[in-house]
């Protein structure tokens, strides 16, 4: 059987990004927290933390953290059923992985009423929609928004809708770099803007319009910075239509080609044994995601 005081020490060190703040949270000395983590490692026979700045969990530590999170959620359910067990604990914290474009557009509006009604705090882990599921697989998060439909073992997935992307640039960029009747081959010769090395949206768009997957590009791992770079005429890029409705209406950004948009399906993944809170969050997201996302 696990000693949950030891697991709580591990969780606090990771969540508070260090032993000192973990000690303050738990009301213990820093030495006591360190001893609890060492005792946990002695019992499981291998390290659970990489002692850096900040400390990071090992693969086993990640699995233990996921277990702790699920236990907390199940304890919350039990407290709701047995009021005498309610010890006035702080709001529950959920770690959620999602893509930066969702965080910059529809996510906050979708989850704000849920967090207020259920006294939930969120910790966001930002990953590209194509690879976010690795956080679930590693046991680091309770839920994930990503483009993968198939869930990891022990989890469920639910389709939410699609995020629509358009290939856009500033009028000044179009005038400088692209001819009046621009074609896909012209895009390969002018600067693009790509979110990061895992971002394949531009490649997918180029394939859809008959272009090459090899093109020059800037890297910009920020949704807000991405739009600013487009507006500044640094390049063209795929950007969520949701994020730039004002810029489109004002003519600050325009389509680079007349081709179709790219729709990226988004799925919500959560643990099967995550308790009633995750189940209710799932129902809430399914109900309200359609306000922002398009149906494929």
From TrEMBL:
NCBIfam families: argP (TIGR03298), PRK03635.1 (NF002964), PRK13348.1 (NF009888). Residues 2-58 form the HTH lysR-type domain. It holds the Pfam family LysR_substrate. It comes from Stutzerimonas stutzeri (Pseudomonas stutzeri). It comes from the Bacteria. InterPro entries: ArgP, LTTR, LysR_HTH_N, LysR_subst-bd, WH-like_DNA-bd_sf, WH_DNA-bd_sf. Belongs to the LysR transcriptional regulatory family. The keyword Glycoprotein does not apply. This is ArgP/LysG family DNA-binding transcriptional regulator. Keywords: DNA-binding, Transcription, Transcription regulation.
């Amino acid at each position: 059987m696990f000693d949950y005081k030891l697991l709580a020490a591990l969780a606090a060190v990771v969540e508070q990004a260090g032993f000192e703040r973990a000690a303050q949270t738990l009301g213990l000395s820093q030495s006591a927290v360190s001893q609890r983590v060492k005792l946990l490692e002695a019992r499981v026979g291998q390290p659970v933390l990489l002692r850096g700045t900040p400390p990071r969990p090992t693969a086993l530590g990640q699995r233990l953290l996921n277990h702790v999170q699920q236990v907390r959620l199940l304890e919350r359910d039990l407290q709701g059923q047995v009021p005498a067990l309610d010890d006035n604990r702080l709001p529950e914290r959920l770690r959620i992985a999602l893509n930066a474009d969702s965080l910059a557009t529809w996510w906050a509006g979708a989850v704000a009423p849920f967090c207020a009604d259920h006294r939930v705090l969120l910790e966001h882990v930002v990953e590209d929609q194509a690879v976010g599921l690795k956080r679930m697989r590693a046991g680091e998060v309770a839920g994930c928004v990503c483009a993968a439909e198939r869930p990891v073992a022990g989890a469920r997935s639910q389709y939410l809708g699609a995020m629509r992307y358009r290939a856009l640039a500033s009028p000044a960029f179009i005038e400088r770099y692209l001819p009046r009747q621009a074609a896909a081959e012209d895009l390969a010769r002018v600067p693009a803007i790509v979110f990061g090395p895992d971002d394949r949206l531009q490649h997918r768009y180029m394939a859809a319009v008959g272009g090459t997957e090899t093109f020059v590009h800037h890297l910009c791992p920020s949704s807000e910075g991405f739009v600013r770079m487009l507006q500044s005429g640094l390049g063209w890029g795929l950007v969520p239509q949701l994020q730039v409705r004002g810029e489109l209406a004002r003519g600050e950004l325009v389509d680079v080609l007349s081709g179709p948009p790219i729709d990226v399906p988004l799925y919500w993944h959560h643990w099967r044994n995550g308790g009633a809170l995750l189940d209710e969050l799932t129902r809430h997201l399914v109900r309200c995601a359609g306000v922002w996302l398009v149906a494929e």
